[in-house]
């Protein structure tokens, strides 16, 4: 069954929603440019209230591997998701420091061979100068045969979740703005998204 990741949680209410709905993953964004950015201290406090059945993913853009590993070893997050120019050497160093799973975000047409050390790839819409996370949809047919389980992000909503699964067969759908109203997580939209995935 396809998994669900709800990314960009930043409020106690978001954690309450997650504890009720139980997505497989939630995401804390540590990238400076994101309006959903949380500090390590804030993420630690939020994670402390998260149901243990939900894994916490930290989203980073070119952060020092020691910083990411510290959040992993400190129990602030369980998995690292990389959205910058992190290469194979970076991924191997991070895995050596932490031993934790790594998700590497890429455009669908990118050469995937360099990122074999990552546990998962994540395909997202990447405009020039962006690191993904734009909330824009891309042509899912560009993914082709990924060769391994992958996360799919970019322009997902409760209305198109089923189409994304049928078209791309991802391991996990990763949604953020598609379950928000006025920039805040919306319980009903989160619920509809998870239902659209889990009740197929």
Concise account of the structure shown:
The protein is of the alpha/beta class and 200 residues long. It contains six helices and ten strands, in the order E-H-E-H-E-H-E-H-E-E-E-H-E-E-E-H.
Strand content bin:
15-25%
Distance between the termini: 9 Å
Helix percent band? 25-40%
Architecture (CATH level 2) name: Alpha-Beta Barrel
Query: Considering the protein shown, what is the CATH homologous superfamily?
Result: Aldolase class I
Structural class: alpha/beta
Q: What is the element string, with H for helices and E for strands?
A: EHEHEHEHEEEHEEEH
Strand order of the largest sheet: 1-2-3-4-5-6-7-8
Question: What overall form do the CA principal axes indicate?
Answer: globular
Unreliable spans: none
Largest sheet: 8 strands, parallel, barrel
Q: If you compute it from the alpha carbons, what radius of gyration comes out, rounded to the nearest whole angstrom?
A: 15 Å
Instruction: Count the E strands.
Output: 10
Mean pLDDT comes to 93
Please, how many domains?
Answer: 1
Query: Could you say what the CATH topology is called?
Result: TIM Barrel
SS element count, helices = 6
CATH level 1 name = Alpha Beta
């Amino acid at each position: 069954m396809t998994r669900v990741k709800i990314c960009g949680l930043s409020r106690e209410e978001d954690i309450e929603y997650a504890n009720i709905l139980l997505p497989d993953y939630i995401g804390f964004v540590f990238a400076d440019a994101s309006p959903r950015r949380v500090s390590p201290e804030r993420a630690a406090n939020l994670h402390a209230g998260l149901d243990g059945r939900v894994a916490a993913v930290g989203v980073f853009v070119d952060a020092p591997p020691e910083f990411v590993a510290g959040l992993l070893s400190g129990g602030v997050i369980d998995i690292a998701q990389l959205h910058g120019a992190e290469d194979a050497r970076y991924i191997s160093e991070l895995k050596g420091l932490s031993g934790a799973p790594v998700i590497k975000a890429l455009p669908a047409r990118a050469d995937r061979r360099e990122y074999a050390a990552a546990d998962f790839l994540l395909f997202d819409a990447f405009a020039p100068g962006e690191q993904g996370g734009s909330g824009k949809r891309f042509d899912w047919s560009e993914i082709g045969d990924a060769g391994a389980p992958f996360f799919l992000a970019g322009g997902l909503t409760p209305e198109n979740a089923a189409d994304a699964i049928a078209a791309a067969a991802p391991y996990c759908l990763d949604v953020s703005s598609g379950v928000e109203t006025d920039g805040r997580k919306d319980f009903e939209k989160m619920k509809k998204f998870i239902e659209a995935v889990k009740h197929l």
